[in-house]
C-alpha cells in the first residue's frame, strides 16, 4: 500500500533548516483518480477469461466440424484458418471490451468508496474535557478514545498503524500551542487519507506530558517510555518528535533533557512544529499531518517493571557517559596507591530556594567525616553553573551524593549502580508537599541507587495559618535548610561505612574475575 501512496506524492519538500535534513513531507493530491488495490486483480482475471473464451470457441469449432455441411455447395468457411483467427479475435475483442468497461466501473466505484472513507475520517479533540478531573489517572484526556497496548511489565503505548488500529495511520491537526481542545486527531487508512493531508515519512514519537518538558524530572518521566520502546524495538530511531502538554503543542524541551536525548539516540533531535509544509496560498491552517509510523506515549513509566526501568537508566547512563567522553568502566577500578577503593563523596548544592541556610557549616560537617575514611574524596559543586557533561562527569566520580530536594538530584542516575543518595528538606514538606516529594526515592529505586533517607529540618519560618493549611506550602516551598551537626555526622559515618564495605567486597570480586572489566563499557544500543 505504501507504494500506492508514494506514487502519488505531488512534491517532496526537504527542510533545509533541519540540521539533518531528515524529515520529509509530501503533500498528497487526491484530485486525479487513484488505482484501487481491489482492481489489481483485473489483468490476471482477464487472462483467465480470455483463455476460457478461447477454449469455448475451439470446442465450438470442433463441434461444427463434426456436423456435415447442409449445403455441399457452400465453401467450408469454418475450417479456413484465417477465418478462425478472425473469429477468435472478435471474441477476444468483445471480452476485452467487457473487461475494460467492468474495470472502469470498478475503478469508479472504488474511487467513490475511497472518497467516502476520506470524508468519513473524523477528527476528535486531542484534549477531551470530559476527563479533565481524571487527567492524570488511567484514562487520560489525551486521545481519550484510544486504548493502550499493555503487556505485563512493559510500557503502555499505542502504535499506528497496527493490528489494533486495523492498519490505520494516525493523523493530527495539532499545531495549536495554547488550547489542546483546538487540536485534534483521527485514524485513516493509507489509501484514504483525509483531504490535503501531509504524509510524514519515518517513525514519529508522539509524547504526552501532563507537566512540562523544561523540568528535568517531569521531562525525563515523559521520555523514559520512549527509551524503553527503543530498546525493545531493535534500537529503532525516531525521525521526529511531536510533544504535547495538555494537548497543546510544545516546540522545545529543556537543554539538559534535550542533550540527554541526543546522547541516547545518538543524533540531533528533530521536534516537529508542523509549519514547514504550510501552503502559501491557503489560509487553511488546519491541514492534517498523517504519520507513516507513530508511537504514542501518555503514561510515563506507568506499567514498567523494575527490570525494564533499570535497563532504561542503564542505557541513559551509558550513552550520556559515552557522549561526554567519560569512562563507562565504573568506579570499582578507581583505587588509591595502596589498592584501597576510592570513595567519592559529593555535595551537590543549590542556590536560592531549598539551599542550605549556611553552606560552609554543612560542608565542614561532611568534609570532616570524609577525611576520617581512607581514600575518601570530597567534592562540592553547584548545580546551577555546571554543563550537562560536567554533571555527568561529576556523577561518574561519586559514590555518595549529598543534595537538597530539587531537580538537580535527577542527575543521580549518572552514578554507578548501587551508589548512595542523601536528601534534605526544609521545614514543612512532609505534610503538605504531596507524593511528589518522594520522586527521588523513586528515581533511586528505578535506576538501581540506594536512597539513604532524607533529613527534614524541624525549624524554619513560622506559618501564620494553621499548620496543615495549603497556604503554608507556598511559604515552605522557598524555605532554606538548616543543619543538625550530630545527626549529619552520624548519618554520614554510617553511609560511608556501608559504602566502604560494599566497595571492598566489589574490589575483591573484581580481582578474582578480571573478565568483568569490559562488561560495563558497552551500551545496549550501539
Ligand atoms: C479488435 O480490436 C482492434 C483494436 O482494438 C481492431 O483493430 C480489430 O479490427 C478488432 N478485431 C475485430 C475482429 O473486431
Ligand atoms: C484490450 O484492450 C486494451 C485497451 O483497452 C488494448 O491495449 C489491448 O491491446 C486489447 N487486447 C486485445 C487482445 O485486443
Ligand atoms: C484543500 O486545500 C485547498 C487549497 O490549498 C482548499 O481550497 C481546499 O478547500 C482544501 N480541501 C479541503 C477538503 O479542505
Ligand atoms: C512559499 O513561498 C515562498 C516564497 O514566497 C517560496 O519560496 C516557497 O517555495 C513557497 N512554499 C510553498 C509550499 O509553496
Ligand atoms: C568527545 O571526544 C570527541 C573526540 O575526541 C570530541 O569530538 C567531542 O567533542 C568530545 N565531546 C565532549 C562532550 O567533550
Ligand atoms: C555559618 O555558620 C558559621 C558557624 O556557625 C558562622 O561562623 C558563619 O558566620 C555562618 N555564615 C553565615 C553566612 O551565616
Ligand atoms: C558556581 O555558582 C556558585 C554559587 O552560585 C559560585 O560560588 C561559583 O563561583 C560558581 N562557579 C563558577 C565556575 O561560575
Ligand atoms: C548492587 O548490589 C547488589 C547487592 O547489594 C548486587 O547484587 C549487585 O550486583 C550490585 N550491582 C552492581 C551493578 O554493582
Ligand atoms: C539533632 O539530632 C539528634 C539525633 O541525631 C537529636 O537527638 C537532637 O535532638 C537533634 N537536635 C536538634 C537541635 O534538633
Ligand atoms: C577469590 O578467589 C579466592 C581463591 O581464588 C577465594 O578464596 C575467594 O573467596 C575469592 N573471593 C571472592 C570475593 O570471590
Automatic annotation (TrEMBL):
The chain crosses the membrane at residues 45-62. The keyword Chloroplast does not apply. It is a single-pass type II membrane protein. GO terms for cellular component: Golgi membrane. InterPro entries: Glyco_transf_61_cat, Glycosyltransferase_61. Residues 1-29 are annotated as: Disordered. This is OLC1v1002710C1. It comes from Oldenlandia corymbosa var. corymbosa.
Amino acid at each position: 500500500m505504501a507504494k500506492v501512496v508514494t506514487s502519488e506524492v505531488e512534491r517532496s519538500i526537504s527542510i533545509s533548516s533541519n540540521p539533518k535534513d531528515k524529515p520529509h513531507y509530501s503533500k498528497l493530491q487526491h484530485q486525479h483518480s487513484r488505482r484501487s488495490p481491489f482492481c489489481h486483480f483485473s489483468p490476471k482475471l482477464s487472462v483467465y477469461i480470455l483463455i476460457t473464451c478461447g477454449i469455448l470457441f475451439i470446442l465450438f469449432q470442433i463441434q461444427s466440424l463434426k456436423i456435415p455441411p447442409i449445403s455441399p455447395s457452400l465453401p467450408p468457411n469454418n475450417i479456413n484458418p484465417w477465418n478462425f483467427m478472425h473469429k477468435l479475435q472478435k471474441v477476444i475483442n468483445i471480452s476485452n471490451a467487457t473487461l475494460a468497461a467492468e474495470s472502469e466501473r470498478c475503478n469508479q466505484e472504488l474511487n467513490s468508496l475511497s472518497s467516502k472513507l476520506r470524508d468519513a475520517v473524523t477528527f476528535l479533540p486531542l484534549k477531551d474535557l470530559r476527563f479533565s478531573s481524571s487527567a492524570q489517572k488511567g484514562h487520560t484526556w489525551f486521545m481519550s478514545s484510544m486504548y493502550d497496548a499493555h503487556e505485563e511489565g512493559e510500557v503502555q503505548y499505542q502504535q499506528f498503524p497496527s493490528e489494533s488500529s486495523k492498519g490505520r495511520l494516525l493523523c493530527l491537526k495539532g499545531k495549536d500551542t495554547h488550547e489542546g481542545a483546538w487540536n485534534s486527531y483521527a485514524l485513516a487508512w493509507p489509501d484514504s487519507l483525509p483531504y490535503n493531508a501531509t504524509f510524514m515519512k519515518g517513525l514519529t514519537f508522539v509524547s504526552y506530558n501532563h507537566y512540562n518538558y523544561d523540568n528535568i524530572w517531569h521531562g525525563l518521566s515523559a521520555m523514559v517510555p520512549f527509551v524503553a520502546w527503543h530498546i525493545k524495538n531493535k534500537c529503532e530511531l525516531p525521525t521526529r518528535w511531536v510533544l504535547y502538554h495538555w494537548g497543546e503543542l510544545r516546540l522545545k524541551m529543556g537543554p539538559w533533557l534535550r542533550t540527554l536525548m541526543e546522547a541516547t539516540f545518538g543524533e540531533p533531535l528533530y521536534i516537529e512544529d508542523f509549519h514547514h509544509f504550510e501552503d502559501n496560498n491557503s489560509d487553511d491552517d488546519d491541514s492534517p499531518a498523517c504519520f507513516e509510523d507513530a508511537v504514542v506515549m501518555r503514561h510515563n513509566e506507568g506499567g514498567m517493571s523494575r527490570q525494564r526501568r533499570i535497563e532504561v537508566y542503564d542505557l541513559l547512563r551509558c550513552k550520556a557517559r559515552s557522549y561526554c567522553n567519560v569512562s563507562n568502566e565504573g568506579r570499582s577500578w578507581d583505587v588509591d596507591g595502596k589498592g584501597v577503593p576510592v570513595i567519592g563523596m559529593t555535595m551537590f548544592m543549590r542556590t536560592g530556594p531549598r539551599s542550605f541556610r549556611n553552606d560552609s557549616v554543612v560542608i565542614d560537617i561532611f568534609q570532616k567525616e570524609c577525611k576520617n575514611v581512607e581514600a575518601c574524596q570530597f567534592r562540592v559543586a553547584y548545580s546551577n553553573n555546571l554543563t550537562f557533561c560536567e554533571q555527568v562527569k561529576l556523577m561518574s566520580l561519586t559514590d555518595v551524593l549529598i543534595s537538597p530536594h530539587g531537580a538537580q538530584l535527577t542527575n543521580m542516575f549518572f552514578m554507578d549502580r548501587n551508589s548512595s543518595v542523601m536528601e534534605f528538606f526544609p521545614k514543612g514538606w512532609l505534610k503538605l508537599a504531596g507524593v511528589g516529594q518522594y520522586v527521588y526515592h523513586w528515581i533511586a529505586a528505578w535506576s538501581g541507587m540506594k536512597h539513604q533517607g532524607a533529613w527534614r529540618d524541624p525549624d524554619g519560618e513560622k506559618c501564620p495559618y494553621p499548620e496543615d493549611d495549603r497556604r503554608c506550602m507556598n511559604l515552605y516551598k522557598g524555605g532554606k535548610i538548616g543543619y543538625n551537626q550530630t545527626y549529619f555526622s552520624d548519618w554520614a559515618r554510617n553511609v560511608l561505612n556501608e559504602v566502604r564495605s560494599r566497595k571492598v567486597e566489589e574490589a575483591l570480586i573484581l580481582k578474582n574475575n578480571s573478565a568483568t572489566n569490559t562488561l560495563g563499557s558497552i551500551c545496549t544500543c550501539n
